[in-house]
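Reopening: C-alpha cells for the flavin-adenine dinucleotide complex, inputs below.
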Amino acid sequence: MANSSNLTTDVVVIGAGVVGLAVANQLSERCRVVIIEKNLKFGQEASSRNSEVIHSGIYYPIDSSKTKLCLRGRELAYDFCSRNKVPHVKCGKYVVAIHAEEENYLLNLREHAKGVGVDCKWISSSELNLREPLIRAQAALFFPESGILDSHQLMSRLEDHLIKQEAIIAYGHKVIDGEFMGDGWSLKYLTTDGRIEELNCKFVVNCGGFGSAGLYNLLLGGERFEHRICCGRYFNLNSKYQNKFSSLVYPVPNVDGLGIHVTRDLDGMVRLGPDVEWSNFSGYQNIEKALQVDWDSLQLKFFDFVKEYVPSLIVEDLSPGFVGVRPKLFDSGRAQKDFVIEKSKNSFHLLGIESPGLTASLAIAEEIVKFLS
Ligand SMILES: Cc1cc2nc3c(=O)[nH]c(=O)nc-3n(C[C@H](O)[C@H](O)[C@H](O)COP(=O)(O)OP(=O)(O)OC[C@H]3O[C@@H](n4cnc5c(N)ncnc54)[C@H](O)[C@@H]3O)c2cc1C
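Re-run output (same inputs, fresh job):
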C-alpha cells in the first residue's frame, strides 16, 4: 500500500461495529489506520443487537457472497475466538420440520448443504426427542458447525489488537462529508463538542452498517443506495428454561424469513426471535420510531408460533427482549439480497451487511485487505 507523506493517514475506516473493527484490525497490521465512529463506544448498533450465532452458511445461494464469506468467516471466527479467549461454543443447530409436509424442505436443504460443503445429519422425531426433550417435530436436520459467541468480547478483543497496533480510534466523531482529491480523500467529521474537522487519507472503507448507504451517496454523489429498516424483535424465556436447550432450534424458513427460532446464549438462557417487521420508513432519523414495539400483542404472535414446536410453553414464560435493525439494501430502488462491496475512487463501501454479517466479519476484512494489497 502506498505511503504518502502529505497524507495524515493511509486508511480511514468509518464505523466501529464488528465489521469496521475486523477490517481495521487486519489493515492496521499493514498500514496506518484511523477508525471514525459516531457513538462513544464500539458496537452500539447492529453488532450488539443480534442472535450471536456463528452461522453454518446454508441459507444463501451457492455462488453468493453471503455463502462464501459466511463459510470462510465461520472458520476465522472459531479460530479467532479460540486464540483470543472469546467465549464461544460450537453447540450445533437443528432445523425442524414441525409438519410432515415440511420434510421436503429438509431434503432440499440437505442437498444444498452438501453442495456448499456443510456437514449435516438427518434426525428422526424420536431421536430429536431424546436430544432436545422440549421440542416436538416430525424430523430435523442437525448442523454441528453452528455455534454462538460473545459478540461484545469479540469486539473488545479486536479493539485491544487495534490499540496494540497503534491504530487510532476516534469515538464520538461522525463523518459528515468527503471530497475525492484524485489520489485520496479529504473527510469532514463532526466532533463530540460540535467542531467540524478534516482528515486526509489515501483510502476510505465505509463500514457504516445501516448508515453505509447514506455515506456512499454522500461521498460519491447521487442517491443510488438506500437501506430500508427491517426490525427483528426478541422475547426472553424465563429462567426455568435455562440450560434446557443444548442447541439452537430453527423452524423451516417461511416467506417472512427464518421463522421465529429458539437460540440460547453462553449462560444457557433462551431467547425467541427474531421476527421480521418491515418499517415504512428508511433513514437513521426514523430508527427510533421503528424501535417502538407493542410488546403485549407481539407476545401472542411469538407464543402461537413457537408453541407449535415447544408445546410446553405458556405465554407467561415470555418477557420482552430487544430489537435489532436489518439494513435491507435497495440499489436504484431494486431490492438486493446479497452483501454488496462497492469500490470506487479509492473507497470501499460495505452495503446490505445484514445476517450473517457477524459470522462473516473476519472474512469481509480479508476481502478488503486483498483489494488494497
Ligand atoms: C435481528 C438481527 C439478528 C442477527 N443475528 C445474527 C447472527 O446470529 N449471526 C450473524 O452472523 N449475524 C447476525 N446479524 C447480522 C449482524 O448483526 C450484522 O451483520 C453485523 O453486526 C453488522 O456489523 P456492522 O459493523 O456492519 O454494522 P454496525 O454494528 O451497525 O456498525 C456500524 C457502525 O457505523 C457507525 N456509523 C454509521 N454512520 C457513521 C458516520 N457517518 N460516522 C461515523 N460512524 C458511523 C455506527 O455508529 C455503527 O457503530 C443479525 C442482525 C440482526 C439485525
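The mean pLDDT is 95. The chain has two domains: 9-48+152-223+337-372, 92-145+227-331. Marking as resolved unless the reporter disagrees.
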